[in-house]
Write a structure and sequence with these properties.
Largest sheet: 7 strands, antiparallel
Low-confidence stretches: none
Strand content: 5-15%
Number of strands: 7
Order of helices and strands: HHHEHHHHHHHHHEEEEEHE
Shape: elongated
CATH topology of the domain at 81-304 and 385-389: Hypothetical protein af1432
CATH architecture of the domain at 81-304 and 385-389: Orthogonal Bundle
Length: about 400
């Protein structure tokens, strides 16, 4: 707080910043012309002495910085809270999966409770913030996948303005969509090069899923259809029934996109993982024929150009990681900055909404120095949680 600027390195973009630097009594500053976007103005000659307004400018900048620091503190608290809730919810989902066989009634009650919490908040929300969750002990198991697919599905559902009851069925179907995998051996699930027999066995998980949930009384048909049809595709090349276009139930078409997105971001082989922005581009450029175009558009509308987990370069040349996006302003997310002089546990958070800096472009992980990735995303996973506000 000894100076009014968020960081010690920044791009000068207005006269107020120069006035503030002068008021601070600095003898000199370092300037990197290679990172500038404009040439210096010519020196003024025969200047008439003016009144000194720099102190007011400096005070205004300091007040602005204090406001930004307070917003960042609140953002840290929110991110930590979301991480705790994510771990609690995934723990509950793990319990639900364990209960499905022996205690289906309990599994039904507990699963509906999770969905009711999320949907209840979303229905009333005027704005939704999607957080990148940084877990202390990253888990690649089924509960994390179920949670991610449920969060993304509900975001799409809200973008489509689905009725509340449809949202509840969507959340429940997304949570339970892969329960049939419990009947598929790990060697088959984790084999990226399955032979014909193993592939047929794997694809049977949709049918096994229906058997797993069969003991749950009053489970809506819409939820069962999600379990049965989340691998059907718009072009009819999916399974198990090769349904074409709108013959696949709408909620299943939503979950199909959310499921594919999470599998691209968090594959079994981490070396093949795509960054969130790359996964969105992949769905549009290479798999658009497999998905309902209306729902695919709502998906992008819900997550934006810079979804959480996206590496970005700012206009001052620094690197960052998007850790929160907001539905009201998807182009200006909250970014964690790479700064080797700052411990990662205290990494600077830059709220693009209130900063002079802007995002120049998304950056693929393969184009980043290794130390940047290890600083910003050491776990290599992309997990999501959402926080709704009125």
């Amino acid at each position: 707080m000894e100076h009014p600027f968020l960081r010690n390195r920044f791009r000068i973009s207005n006269v107020k910043q120069i006035q503030a630097l002068r008021r601070m009594g600095l003898k000199s500053i370092e300037w990197d012309p290679q990172r500038s976007t404009a040439q210096p103005l010519p020196e003024a000659r025969d200047e008439v002495e003016e009144d000194d307004f720099t102190q007011g400018t400096l005070n205004a900048l300091l007040d602005n910085k204090r406001d930004r620091v307070e917003r960042v503190r609140e953002a840290r608290d929110s991110i930590a809270r979301c991480a705790r809730l994510f771990e609690q919810e995934t723990g509950s989902i793990r319990q639900i999966f364990d209960e499905l066989g022996a205690k289906p009634a309990d599994a039904n009650v507990h699963s509906r409770a999770i969905v009711d919490r999320l949907v209840g908040n979303l229905i009333k929300a005027g704005s939704v913030a999607v957080h990148l969750v940084n877990l202390k002990k990253p888990d690649v198991g089924a509960p994390n996948h179920a949670m991610n697919v449920m969060v993304v599905s509900l975001l799409i559902g809200k973008s489509l303005s689905l009725p509340e009851e449809d949202m509840r069925c969507l959340g429940l179907g997304a949570m339970l969509h892969d329960v049939g995998l419990s009947e598929i051996p790990a060697r088959v699930q984790r084999n990226a090069n399955r032979n014909t027999t193993d592939e047929q066995f794997y694809r049977a998980h949709t049918g096994y899923g229906l058997k797993v949930v069969a003991p749950i009384k009053d489970l809506p048909i819409a939820v069962k259809n999600v379990i049965a049809c989340h691998h059907e595709t718009w072009d009819g090349k999916g399974y198990p029934n090769g349904l074409v276009g709108s013959k696949t139930p709408k909620l299943a078409r939503i979950v199909a996109i959310a499921n594919r997105y999470d599998n691209l971001c968090n594959p079994l082989d981490p070396k093949t993982a795509l960054a969130p922005s790359e996964a969105i581009a992949h769905l549009f450029k290479k798999e658009s024929g497999a998905h309902d175009p209306e729902i695919l558009g709502a998906f992008v509308k819900a997550l934006g150009v810079y979804p959480p987990g996206t590496f970005v370069m700012l206009n001052d040349g620094s690197y960052g990681l998007v850790i929160e996006s907001r539905s009201r302003d998807l182009l200006r997310p909250l970014v964690m900055l790479y700064d080797v002089s700052v411990p990662r546990s205290e990494a600077l958070l830059l709220d693009i909404q209130g900063a002079d800096e802007t995002i120049q472009n998304a950056v693929a992980p393969r184009d980043l120095p290794r130390e940047v990735i290890e600083y910003l995303a050491p776990q290599g996973r992309v997990d999501f949680y959402l926080e709704a506000s009125t």
